[in-house]
């Protein structure tokens, strides 16, 4: 089938945007990717590729290389405020990985995708205006450039500028789950060797991990917040994080000491995106911009890979007819996205304990489970909902 509407602008060179560019080119489209950053982002925190996303990676011919770049995290340990080990397990069980799931650094996955993608790139720029006509979309860029494309796809994350321009303000679609998350690199003063350590306090959880080939470590902070808004600016965010963890035990003060010098500091709300529709005329949304499941779901990367594959495939199957292609994309993806979104709130309840009593009970249960002969079966039941959600779509051959 001959494609129409072949010139497609993708906003965002993240995992969703790069994967979409790959598959659009494979199906005969001409993708252009605009990215605010000056280049593909390196490093980053670790992410999981699970279930149906592994099939997408295999069909892209990168599964072997993806697995070769696994983080190599060997174990996960939960400690108390004194640093005493409460429970330990292997890294894959701790991370809820089964059946060949791959944990990699986000930057490594970015690089693998970028190297396989034939597209025009507009780095250091962003979309500032969209004007739809019967024949295309006139796009204004921050650089002053104005160009017309057949279709525009917003793959620009939770705080999508494309979504705001085409669908309305963020507050209509972003649902705060009442938690905040911060991640940044720190010196490996704990001497971690491809391992992850978690400390749980009332209303706040901290973990540190090291990966294969990296002398430093990453620290992650996940905590409950009653604040309606996320502080703006790094200084205010650092202050909010320090205040949330004031007086906390274990190695938390020392990890926070590394915050000011971290070049990769990240702070945001734990939130989801809920929308009645993912397209408006010639503009559609992909990945976190359309159906963010939150970092607590552990499924953002997999949703990005699968969503991009389905969107490109359905546009190709429809011959580039954007109305038919966008509608088919949503029919295929919405049940899968919603199933994975359910993981976010459920996982938060396990990851962040509300009270000191809940923390004590959790620590007691973890300690007991570590000594039980049937602990593998117990963990299998914990992991089962993650695997079920990750495989809750039958991928077509486009």
UniProtKB/TrEMBL annotation:
Protein name: FAD-dependent oxidoreductase
Record keyword Nucleus present: no
Entry annotated with the keyword tRNA processing: no
The entry's keywords: Membrane, Transmembrane, Transmembrane helix
GO function terms (MF aspect): FAD binding
Segments forming domain FAD-binding: 6-340
InterPro entries: FAD-bd (IPR002938), FAD/NAD-bd_sf (IPR036188), FAD_aromatic-hydroxylase (IPR051704)
Transmembrane segments: 6-24
PANTHER family hit by this protein: MONOOXYGENASE, OXIDOREDUCTASE-RELATED
């Amino acid at each position: 089938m001959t494609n129409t509407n072949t010139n497609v602008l993708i906003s965002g060179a993240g995992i969703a945007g790069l994967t979409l560019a790959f598959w659009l080119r494979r199906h005969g489209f001409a993708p252009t990717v605009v990215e605010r950053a000056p280049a593909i982002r390196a490093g980053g925190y670790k992410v999981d590729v699970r279930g149906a996303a592994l099939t997408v990676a295999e069909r892209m011919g990168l599964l072997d290389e993806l697995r070769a770049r696994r983080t190599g995290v060997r174990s996960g340990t939960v400690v108390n405020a004194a640093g005493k080990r409460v429970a330990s397990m292997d890294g894959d069980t701790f991370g809820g990985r089964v059946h060949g799931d791959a944990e990699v650094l986000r930057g490594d996955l970015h690089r693998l995708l970028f190297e396989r993608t034939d597209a025009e790139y507009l780095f250091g720029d962003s979309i500032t205006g969209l004007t739809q006509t019967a024949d295309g979309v006139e796009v204004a860029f921050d650089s002053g450039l104005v160009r017309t494309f057949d279709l525009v796809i917003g793959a620009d994350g939770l705080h999508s500028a494309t979504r705001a321009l085409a669908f309305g303000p963020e507050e209509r679609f972003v649902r705060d789950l009442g938690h905040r998350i911060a991640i940044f690199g720190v010196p490996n003063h704990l001497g971690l060797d491809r391992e992850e350590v978690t400390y749980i306090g009332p209303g706040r959880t901290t973990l540190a991990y090291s990966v294969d080939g990296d002398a430093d470590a990453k620290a992650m902070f996940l905590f409950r917040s009653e604040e309606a808004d996320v502080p703006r600016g790094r200084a205010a965010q650092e202050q909010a994080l320090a205040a949330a963890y004031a007086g906390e035990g274990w190695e938390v003060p020392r990890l926070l000491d590394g915050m000011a010098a971290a070049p990769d500091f990240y702070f945001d709300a734990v939130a989801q995106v809920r929308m009645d529709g993912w397209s408006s005329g010639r503009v559609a949304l992909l990945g976190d911009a359309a159906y963010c499941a939150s970092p607590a779901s552990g499924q953002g990367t997999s949703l990005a890979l699968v969503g991009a594959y389905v969107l490109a495939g359905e546009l190709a199957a429809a011959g580039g007819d954007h109305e038919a292609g966008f509608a088919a994309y949503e029919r295929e993806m919405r049940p899968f996205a919603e199933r994975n979104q359910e993981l976010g709130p459920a996982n938060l309840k396990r990851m962040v304990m509300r009270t000191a009593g809940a923390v004590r009970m959790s620590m007691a249960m973890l300690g007991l489970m570590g000594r039980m002969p049937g602990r593998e079966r117990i963990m299998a039941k914990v992991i089962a909902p993650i695997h079920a959600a990750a495989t809750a779509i039958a991928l077509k051959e486009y």
